[in-house]
Amino acid sequence: MSDRSLAGLLGSLPDGVEALPEEHKQDLAEALREAHRRQAAALSRVGDEAMRHIPALLRPTVRKAMGL
After folding, report:
1. Would you list the DSSP string of 16-31?
2. Rounded to an integer, what distance in angstroms lies between the CA atom of residue 29 and that of residue 21?
3. Separation of alpha carbons 17 and 15, rounded Å
């Protein structure tokens, strides 16, 4: 992500979030980035596990169809 600010992550901010001190906005932005990293890792693991249920000969075709 090129814009590491909270607005860069979420777009327009609700008034309550906009009213937060800049330090708290930065903390929230970092927490969101970390949550995104954890979610991406979990989805990757689950995707790999799901592929194990597909016969080996079909996996390349399924990966291609899924854009993996």
Report:
1. HHHTS-HHHHHHHHHH
2. 12
3. 5
pLDDT per position as a tens digit, 23-41: 998 899 899 999 999 999 9
The helix (H) or strand (E) run that includes residue 43 is: helix 22-51
List the Cα angle 36/42/44 in 5-degree steps: 100
Q: Is the dihedral of CA 40, 45, 48, 50 positive or negative?
A: negative
d(CA 54, CA 14): 44
CA angle, 38 then 40 then 46, to 5°: 100
Q: The pTM is what?
A: 0.66
Work out whether the CA dihedral 12, 14, 19, 23 comes out positive or negative.
negative
